[in-house]
Amino acid sequence: MDDSILVVNCGSSSLKLALFDHDHQKITSALAERLNQSDAFARINGDETPVHLPSGASHSQALAALVNAFKDRALMTGEPMAVGHRVVHGGETFREASLIDDQTVSAIEACAALAPLHNPVNLAGIRAMQALFPNVPQVAVFDTAYHQTLPERAYRYALPERCYSDWGVRRYGFHGTSHYFMAQQAARLLEKTPATTSIISAHLGNGCSITAIQNGLSVDTSMGLTPLEGLVMGTRSGDVDPGLFDYLASRGMSANDVHEMLNKESGLQGLSGQTNDMRTLCELADHGHEPSQLAIDVFCFRLARYIGAMTASLTKLDALVFTGGIGENSARIRQDTARHLRLLGIELDPDLNQHHGRWSDGRISSPDSCYPALVIPTNEELVIAREAARLAVAGAEHSEG
């Protein structure tokens, strides 16, 4: 056994695998896509030689192939000290990361109805790595766990009590690992402790969510029972009138049709009629494509509206933080969003906003801004690696004790 840590993130038809050393520095990463399809493929980051996968490769076959490729390229010299798994939904069972045992697996299975597209494939990754490394501690890190500090007024829907007590219908929130990382990093950049730092964290990528963090704890967030609620996203609608379902049903759409439309055909993709890629939308808008400009306008307005709403859950605000692929890389989206926040007194410095990477503190706000605005790159894999190592060590010490 060496002192490396593997991090596994399984999606419905893809997976990401990352390898960290004992100092939590990333050694390498890999990606497999189009799993369970005839053209499944895999590659290691920075290596032009593809990793061979059989036609229709499953998650377990892809993981085995990538682990062998790491070994063949001398990136791994033995078994890792721990394997960390991203698990999307932990329900109300998990408030923090957990060592995986039979009880943990059963609890993840019990949450599958809340995340039918994610938890089953997360479990497939867990079982595959248990088969490859039966003596290595496996750790589950949950997207929902960080949001288990939400007060009841923030997580309950105005529905009959039985919906919550019998079926677990409530707001859970997602992207918790990223928002937790933002809380830690923002505190460091602001020269404060996490326990005294309050921020609004905007995770903006193909999936988008925003979280109000009071003194290091999540107290409100935009995603709900599922990742569909909240902001406009790449292909997800975000908030819609619940009456839409009856209306579309009266037009002949089935529940599955509506589900597919809201999750895979809406958001930036639906508004623009072109793409869910923000960079392409900005280019199209610059060339006069009005639907693309509309998609950008709706995205930024809805984001700004949620930023304003999140202040209701805070007693102070130390910073507004942008992260995720769009949040980190699109100066245009940050600026267009800030234009809607004049009443909050948030003003961006145009030069800092455009070139924030040149400044180590990530600050993009002007000196006249009432609140600092920061850009902080997220690193969910690092959080998972740290949690996996921590619990593996704690588990070993407990066994010895």
From TrEMBL:
Catalytic activity: acetate + ATP = acetyl phosphate + ADP
Residues reported to bind ATP: K16, H203, L204, G205, N206, G207, D277, M278, R279, G325, I326, G327, E328, N329
The name this protein goes by in its record: Acetate kinase
Keywords: ATP-binding, Cytoplasm, Kinase, Magnesium, Metal-binding, Nucleotide-binding, Transferase
A Pfam family annotated for this UniProt entry: Acetate_kinase
UniProt KW Kinase keyword: yes
Location of the protein in the cell: Cytoplasm
Site label Transition state stabilizer, positions: H175, R236
Subcellular location, principal: cytoplasm
Documented EC number(s): 2.7.2.1
Pathway(s) the chain acts in: Metabolic intermediate biosynthesis; acetyl-CoA biosynthesis; acetyl-CoA from acetate: step 1/2
GO cellular component term, pick one: cytosol
Description of how the protein assembles with itself and partners: Homodimer.
Residues bound to substrate: R86
Co-factor requirement: Mg(2+); Mn(2+)
Gene3D superfamilies: 3.30.420.40
Gene Ontology annotations of biological process type: acetate metabolic process; acetyl-CoA biosynthetic process
UniProt-recorded Gene Ontology molecular function terms: acetate kinase activity; ATP binding; magnesium ion binding
